[in-house]
Amino acid sequence: MLSKLNLKKKLSFLKSSDKLREIIANTGWLFADRILRMGVGLFVGVWVARYLGVQQFGVFNYATAFVALFSTLSTLGLDAIVVRSIVREPEKRSQILGTAFWLKLFGGVTALVLAVSSIIVVRHDDQLTISLVAILSSVGIFQAFDTIDLWFQSQVQSKYTVIAKNTAFVITALVKVILISIHAPLIAFAWAGLGEVSLGAIGLIISYRVRGYSPWLWPWNLPLAKNLLKESWPLILSGVTIMIYMRIDQIMLGQMVGDKAVGLYSAATRISEVWYFIPMAMASSVSPAIYAAKEVSESLYYRRIEQFLRLLSLLSVVVAVPMSFLSGTIITILFGKSYEESASILSIHIWASLFVFMGVGTSSWFIAEGLTQFALRRTIIGAITNVFLNIFLIPTYGGVGAAIATVISQAFASFLSNATHPKTRIIFWIQVKSMIPFLS
Q: How far is C-alpha 136 from the geometric centre of its chain's CA atoms?
């Protein structure tokens, strides 16, 4: 009883604290960022896809997916570690930020060199794709300035990042519209993407200077760099695995079938994946209640988890069913008749959302139970399953085969893998119950 009273006191304190109001305001800015990017990004992205046509859209998305395989090297898995370090040792802010910046810059250059070298080997006779990869992978160098964003995160002041990056995003969206109106070549859209990141970096520098700080005064600390990398290497490995898991289907399609297949597949996934923000947004709001419930009682804790998973399961079905039946109409209206083959891909790929929603919904349980090490294990299982299925399905079924592989691999990663270990079997059965309405 005493522990319950203490918990209630803590919660009531939080409700009245300025810190909670800062968190709520910060979350509001992040939500606004997601909504703006989802709406404007989808609108402009569809417009660009219609303008480029299936073949060129496929080339662009192949290059984007190829660059993504190396993108983890640009961040080096440092973000959460840097934010935590600043919060713990604010007096070392400059050293932490400076060391992280130079590590990220080195990582960005390394990612650029590896991406360009690899694409030259894979497509040595395709100068357009090589140029696209070279431009798009240069983004990692400018992303080193995202270190400034980590400072704003540590101070719960993400509005400065949102303003800086969304200003660049809106300007770039307008530039893309202009590029379409003047019938610009494909390569111009890659330069526009690089320009967006560059403008975002400038915006972050200005915001940081307005707050009275200067990134040019950040020092480098070798012992600190070693400690940061020692902590981040598992996250680097996890990030690489996730990128393989998420993007390998487009690369394998491009290599095994052709760029047109990538264009058709990318159009479908652009519609299918736009819904993934729903569980992420909901989880950020529900997770504190789940953590609090664990302090009160195990039964309440698991009841809330099951209720949340049931809700996510229902929402995913509500999204997937109409998208499956209306996929042809949706694709034709948005992308035009040249993309009509994407409809069958969308009708299958959309069902991956059931397992994506489930995976996000169980993340709070893994954190509460201290089982975050299983995240890498699940991702590796998903990545291996995806590659294995793509090898067998893509040659015969093309983009439809890649969609089937994605759904099955998501099921393995976010659902079935939980049945393979005694520590995670309890959440597996809760997931089963949440997906079958008549079980209680």
A: 17
* CA 94/CA 151 separation, integer angstroms: 10
User: How many CA atoms within 13 Å lie on the side-chain side of 363?
Assistant: 19
Closest of 171, 174, 165, 247 to residue 206, by C-alpha:
165
Q: Which structure tokens are listed for 321? A: 């069913």
Measured CA to CA, the distance from residue 430 to residue 304 in angstroms comes to 11
Nearest CA to 306 among 428, 220, 205? 428
Reduce the DSSP state of residue 103 to 3 states and report it.
helix
- In this prediction, what percent of the chain has a pLDDT beyond 70? 86
Model pLDDT, residue 158: 65
pLDDT at 21: 59
pLDDT at 181 over 50: yes
C-beta separation of 184 from 244 below 8 A: no
Q: Find, among 40, 14, 28, the residue nearest to 159 by Cα.
A: 28
Buried b (16+ CB within 10 A) or exposed e, 149-177: bbbbbbbbbbbbbbbbbbebbebbbebbe
First-to-last C-alpha distance (Å) of the chain: 29
SS3 440: coil
Report the alpha-carbon distance of residue 319 to residue 275 in Å, rounded: 8
Percent of the chain residues topping a pLDDT of 90: 24
Mean pLDDT score, 367-375: 72
pLDDT at residue 5 greater than cutoff 50: no
Best CA proximity match to 432, nearest among 372, 320, 355: 355
**pLDDT over 90 at 3, yes or no:** no
| Nearest in space to 119 (alpha carbons), one of 65, 73, 179 | 65
State how far the alpha carbon of 367 is from the alpha carbons of 233, 288, 370, 376, in Å.
Answer: 19, 11, 5, 13
Are the CB atoms for 351 and 324 separated by under 8 Å?
yes
Cα angle 404-406-411, degrees, rounded to a multiple of 5: 100
Structure-block tokens of residue 395: 């040659």
Cβ-proximal residues to 435 (8 Å cutoff; 6+ apart), any chain: 313, 354, 358
pLDDT at res. 120: 93
In order of 355, 408, 409, 423, the CA distances from 420 in angstroms are 17, 16, 15, 9
The residue to which tokens 């970096």 are assigned: 201
